[in-house]
Amino acid sequence: MPSSSGPSRLTSLHSRPPLRYAVYFLSLLGLAASVLAMLFESAWGWAALPFGLLAALGTYDRYQRRHTVSRNYPILAHFRYFLESIGPEIRQYFIQSDTEQTPYSREQRSLVYQRAKNVLDKKAFGSVQDMYAEGYEWISPSLKPTRIDSHDFRITIGKDCAKPYSASIFNISAMSFGSLSANAITALNAGAKRGRFYHDTGEGAISPYHRQGGDLVWEIGSGYFGCRNEDGTFSEERFVEGATLEQVKMIEIKLSQGAKPGHGGILPAAKVTPEIATTRGVPVGKDVISPYSHSAFTTPLEMMGFIGRLRELSGGKPVGIKLTIGHPWEWFGLVKAMLETSQRPDFIIVDGGEGGTGAAPLEFINRLGMPLTEALLLVHNTLVGAGLRDKIHIGAAGKIVSAFDIARTIALGADWCNAARGYMFALGCIQAMTCHTDRCPSGVATQDKRRGKKLDVPDKTQRVFHFHDNTLKALAEMLAAAGLKDTSELGPEHILRRVSKTEIRSFASLFPFLEPDELLHSVPEHAVFREYWQAAQPDTFHPPVSIQELRATKLR
After folding, report:
1. Cβ(416)–Cβ(422) under 8 Å?
2. What's the gap between Cα 260 and its chain centre?
3. Where is the Glutamate synthase domain (predicted)?
């Protein structure tokens, strides 16, 4: 446990001139020394010139508002920009291709940067993709393209609620204040307001920086931040205060997160500033530990009751859940609880195992949680087979940045998509992968105010808006080329995958799909349903007896 002096030590460190300003300070010192030397020998003017140019550049970097990295790294940032400018050539000849995704390829990041800056996002000469490689995917074009006049694709969530919500089909996924900087949250919400799409708060509660007028989806995790009692349990009174805000359009109960399912997470004491403590409803300067599971419910049936209660307390706003698929019997138990009680979420967010995070153990990031494709198919198929798909909408998140990513995900069964890292790129994230160190060079994922305040809110607000707008414009063009008029028309038959050098299959033939109400009358041959559907129970998350028996022996 960090000592009580943690925050003071952090403050002391932040009060000293940062090392990253060293080159700038040396240039100022060199300029002053050169000018002083000129009083005795005019030849020193040749030294004053380069020092003066560097000092002028550093001063400009510190006070310009366009580039956050330059403000945090005066003069030094230009070395990065130079190396970045020749990066494609270096990779082309020596290192890697532009399509290598680690975790996002240069091609993907460049696409976001160009669309966010509202500059030309077209490419010349041809694709750099290997179209004959196994796994290559594409959408089928039509010989009779359509015309789409509006790219503002929307879907109404919670049609049976007193306050349904018309959502964009591309929104900002959950990222908390505390994980992202104040300026980053402000720019995201202001961009969402301009583009009329929603901004998920993350489980860190609704901060003052979320209150820029953009639509909010309030995510409630196991820590009940923003709606908790002193002992960490759920507070109905505090929930009502937040849920009835006009800006809050939907409530999302976070069961698990793609990059770290089953991991509660810790916000270190040094990061728990008075501002964050007030926002989350926790003590200042103490570790904030999110429990591994919710205390407001312990069974699927209890969860359905909790969902209904939140809908009532919020005044009839849509209430949903977010989860990463793990044990199939647990998911099936949730669906059976919906059938038994006739209570159900208005929406489900499927978070793929490839999702991002500010910090998580490597094993969680790499090896825990079902990837989005399989998870989305399982959720969609189960709801179709249980006769619930027309009553529950599905959102999906997991490395979605392009129009094709959106089209592919909707074709697999989603109604809309969310993105986190894509919008971070729009804010200026350079994929430094230092989110957990509090040293984010772009001022996005940090609580160091000296770094975060360099992120220019008006400029990044425009970038967030343009990324959303230009991505949906590209989606409209892609749909029109495929002969479609709306995202609701997308289906698995529209996406093709190369499964070998000589074989191509559509998603419709590649993946099994259940018939409506099939689970109500029979058990499909699909292995997961055959093994676990009948054994799943609505009154417990415990594994079936057969699984418990396997856990008790190595004699399999």
Report:
1. no
2. 13
3. 167-484
Query: What CA–CA distance (Å, rounded) separates 489 from 502?
Result: 29
Q: How confident is the model at residue 47 (pLDDT cuts 50, 70, 90)?
A: confident
Q: Of 202-216, 257-271, 315-329, where does mean pLDDT reach its minimum?
A: 257-271
Cβ atoms within 10 Å, residue 16: 7
Task: Please check the confidence at residue 136 and state whether its pLDDT lies above 70.
Answer: yes
Locate the DSSP E strands across 326-419: 347-351, 393-397, 416-419
CB 215, CB 197: distance < 8 Å:
yes
3-state SS, one letter per residue, for 447-498: CCHHHHCCCCHHHHHHHHHHHHHHHHHHHHHHHHHCCCCCHHHCCHHHEEEE
The gap from C-alpha 326 to its chain's centroid, in whole angstroms, comes to: 19
Q: Distance (Å, rounded) from C-alpha 455 to C-alpha 120? A: 23
- The number of C-alpha atoms within 13 Å of 268 and in the hemisphere containing its C-beta is 16
The 10s digit of each residue's pLDDT in 501-527 is 999 999 999 999 999 999 999 999 889
How many C-beta atoms surround the C-beta of residue 50 within 10 A?
13
* Unique residue bearing structure tokens 């415990």: 542
Strands 216-220 and 199-200, bridge-based pairing: parallel
What are the beta bridge partners of residue 139? 495
Distance CA 247, CA 242 (A): 9
Residue 535 sits at the vertex; the CA angle it makes with 532 and 540, to the nearest 5 degrees, is 110
Indicate the SS3 state at residue 399. coil
Q: Dihedrals φ, ψ of 323, to 5°? A: -150, 155
Q: Render pLDDT for 216-259 as a digit per residue (tens, 0 to 9).
A: 999 999 999 999 998 999 999 999 999 999 999 999 999 987 66
Greater confidence (210 vs 292) lies with 210
pLDDT of residue 16: 67
* Count of beta carbons in the 10 Å neighbourhood of residue 299: 17
Tokens at 277, concatenated: 């403590």
Distance CA 431, CA 426 (A): 12
pTM of the predicted model over 0.70 = yes
Using alpha carbons, select from 63, 30, 67 the residue that is nearest to residue 49: 30
Segment holding 216, helix H or strand E: strand 216-220
Please tell me whether residue 156 adopts helix, strand or coil conformation: strand
User: pLDDT band at 83, cuts 50/70/90?
Assistant: confident
What totals of helices (H) and strands (E) does the chain contain, helices first? 22, 15
**Which distant-in-sequence residues (6+ apart) come within 8 Å of 281 by Cβ?**
205, 225, 226, 227, 228, 238
Burial class (CB in 10 A: 0-12, 13-18, 19+), 382: buried
